[in-house]
Amino acid sequence: MKKLLIGLTVIVALLVLFLMMGPFYIIDEGSQAVVTRFGKIVDSHTDAGLYFKMPFVDQVTLYPKRILSLDGEAYRIPTKENQFIILDATSRWRISDPEKFYQSLKTLDNAYNRLADIVDSATRTIVAQNRLSEVVRSSNLINENIITDVSLSDSENQIESLINARTTSEIVTKGRRQLSFEMLEEARKMTDEYGIDLIDILPRQIKYSDEMTESVYNRMIKERNQVAEAYRSKGEGDKAEWLGKLEKDKLTIESEAYRKAEEIKGQADAEAAAIYAEAYDVDKEFYSFWKSLESYKQTFSKFDATFTTDMDYFDYLYSAEGNR
Question: Is residue 98 within 8 Å of 46, Cβ to Cβ?
Answer without folding.
Answer: yes
